[in-house]
Amino acid sequence: MFIRQTRTSNKATGEGYVTYRLVRTERIGGKVRQITVLNLGRHFPIKSEDWPILCSRLEQLLNPQALIMPLECSESIERAAQRYHAQLVARAPMLVSPADEAAGSAGEARPPADFQEVDVDSLQMTQPRSVGVEHAGLHAASELGLIETLNDLGVNGVMQASILGNLIGRMGQPGSELATWNWLQQHSALGELIDVDFGSMSHMSLYRASDVC
Predict the structure, then answer these.
(1) Which residues are bridge partners to 4 per DSSP?
(2) Confidence of residue 96 (pLDDT cuts 50, 70, 90)
(3) What is the DSSP-derived secondary structure letter of residue 49?
(4) For residue 61, what are the contacts with CB-CB under 8 A and spacing of at least 6?
(5) pLDDT, mean of residues 84-95
(6) Is residue 23 included in any domain, yes or no?
(7) Following CA atoms 64, 68, 74, 78 in sequence, which dihedral angle do they give, to the nearest 10 degrees?
(8) Counting beta carbons within 10 angstroms of the beta carbon of residue 184, is it exposed (0 to 12), middle (13 to 18) or buried (19 or more)?
(9) What are phi and psi of 35, to 5 degrees?
């Protein structure tokens, strides 16, 4: 989503003014359309440089399951985001996507909702892995410029993965190199985040990386 500033005029008086709208884009039939999801009015108080963070915060509120890292924003932005989020939730039953509009205009009947019951006790987890501390560790390494420094030094991909595995492993599960190696192989999703198969990596790679660290 993004905020669009639109100049318009009063049809009766001809007076020009600026209005603000919260807009989302949607691809329909190969074409991208801009859909206004909320009219923010003429007296929108948020500065233009804060529009991106406001939209990001709204996206987080609308999709809380996608939240991994908290978004830092000012108190005024948070209040505005909460207010507009409440308006969007209240309007949700009225929001119809262009795809639904196209289907309705063509006279096509919507398929009935399909609900299925699942026995929760029958679910089985296969290789459940943690991702929280791994994501935080990668974010910290990036902010500190560690990954960029390793690239500048010509450190290859396997050694970089081993170094990051050692550092983040000590953050998430402090222990020996062997304990870190077991954690990376059996419990951590760090490999999925950096596209490295720690399951096929020997523990000697971590030992060598420890000397670098």
Answers:
(1) 21
(2) very low
(3) G
(4) 81, 82, 85
(5) 71
(6) yes
(7) 0
(8) buried
(9) -115, 125
Q: Do 135 and 191 contact (CB within 8 A), yes or no?
A: no
Q: What residues have CB less than 8 Å from 128, skipping those under 6 apart? A: none
Question: Looking at the 3D structure of the chain, how many domains does it have?
Answer: 2
Q: Do 65 and 153 have their domain in common?
A: no
3-state DSSP helix/strand/coil % of the chain, to nearest 5: 55, 15, 30
Q: Is the pLDDT of residue 95 over 60?
A: no
* DSSP-derived secondary structure for 160-180: HHHHHHHHHHHHHS---HHHH
Name which of 38, 86, 41 is nearest 61 in CA terms: 86
The string over 150-164, giving b where at least 16 C-beta atoms fall within 10 Å of a residue's C-beta and e elsewhere, is beeeebeeebbbbbb
- Does the pTM exceed 0.85? no
Residues 97 and 165 in one domain: no
- Alpha carbons 78 and 43: distance in angstroms, whole number: 18
User: In this structure, are 85 and 8 located in the same domain?
Assistant: yes
* CA–CA dist 3, 36 (Å, integer): 9
Structural domain that includes position 13: 2-105
Tokens representing 52?
A: 């991106």
